[in-house]
Amino acid sequence: MSRSVKIQSSETQIEVYEFGDGIFNKHHITHTEEIKPFLEVNHKFWLNLYGLENDILLKEIGEIFEIHPLTLEDIKNTSQRPKFEEFEENIFIVSKMIYYKNKSHEPITEQISILFGKNYIISIQENPFDIFDPIRSRLENPTGKMRKLGTDYFAYTLLDTIVDKYFDCLEHAVEKIETLEDHIISQSKNTKLPDIFHQRKTIQQIKRTVWPTRELLSAWKKSESPLVKKKTNPFINDVYEHVIEIIENLEIQRESISALVELFMSNLSLKQNEVMKTLTIIATIFIPLTFIAGVYGMNFEFMPELGWKYGYLVIWIFFLGSTLGMMYYFKKKKWF
Question: Rounded to 5 degrees, what are φ and ψ at 16?
Fold first, then answer.
C-alpha cells in the first residue's frame, strides 16, 4: 500500500501548477499524498521537482504516476545522454542544461528529466537553479498557447528554454575567444597557450551536450505516439533547426580555436626571432671589439703599440667609432 512521504529536505522542493482555459493555480507540495487529487482533474498540471537526494520521494512519485523502474533509475543517474523514450502512458525525455552561474568561467551541466502524459508534465532538476521562470510567466497569460495546447507543447517549451540557454553559452564562448584573439594580437603577457586549450575544452563540452539533443529531437519528430500532436511538429522542427545552428556555430568556434593556436605560435615565433635578432646585433657589434681586445691582450714582450703614448686613447676611439658605425648601418638597413 502506498504511503504519503513528507518532503523534509530543503534541497528537495515540489511545485505544482494547474492550468487550462480560465484556470491557473500554483501549489507548494509538502506531502506526496497531495499530488494524487491532481490526477483526477480534467485540466492539465505541471509538477516541477528540485533535487534528487530523496530516493523514497522519487519512488513514491514513480508509483503515483506509474513510472517504469528503469525510468526512475535514469532520472537518478545524472550521467545519462539526452534521449527520447516512448511508453504506453507517457513519454520520457532526458535533456542537459548548460549555464553559467554567478558569472562563473566554467559552464555547469545539469540533467533535466521530463515526463509527460495525457494531462500532466513532470520536470525533475538536479539543482534549485531554475531557468523556467519565463514559462511560469507564459502560463499566467490566459490567452497563451500553453493554456490551450497539449502537454507535448508544454514539453516543447521546456526543451526550447533549455536550447535557448545553449545560445547563451555559445555567446559566452564567442566573447571569450574574441578576448583571447585581442590579447594575442596585442601580445599581452596574460594570455598563455593553456588558456586557449581550456577554451577548446569548453567548446567540446558544450558540443558533447548539444549533439545528442539533436538526436533526441529527431526521435521526437519521428514519434507516432498519440501523446504527440501534429500541431506541435512545427515547433519541434524549429527547436531542431536551432540545435543544428548551434552545432554549426560550435564547429566554427572550434576552427577559430585552431586558428588562435596557430596565431599564438606565430606570435611566439616572432618574439623569439626578435630576441635572436637583438642578440645577433649585440654579438656582431662586439666581434671587432673582442678581436682588438684579444690581440692587445696577448702577453708578447715586443708589441710596438704597447709603448705608444696615445695607444689607449686610439683604441677607445676605434671601439666607439666601430660601434656607432655599425649601429648606424643597422639602423639604415632597418634591422632594429
Answer: -125, 130
Phi, then psi, of 40 in degrees rounded to 5: -95, -10
H-state helical runs in the chain: 55-64, 69-76, 133-139, 145-148, 151-185, 193-221, 233-295, 311-332
11 pLDDT more than 60:
no
Question: What pTM was computed for the model?
Answer: 0.75
Distances (CA, A) of 11 to 47, 49, 132: 16, 10, 18
For helices 151-185 and 233-295, angle between their N-to-C axes, nearest 10 degrees? 10
pLDDT tens, residue by residue, 94-104: 998 888 776 66
Give the Cα separation of 318 and 326 in Å (integer).
12
| Residue-range domains of the chain with CATH | 13-266 (3.30.460.20), 270-332 (1.20.58.340)
B/e letters for 12-43, b = 16+ CB within 10 Å, e = fewer, are bbbbbbbbeeeebeebebeebeebeebeeeee
Nearest to 314 by CA among 329, 304, 327: 304
Cell reading at 34: 497531495
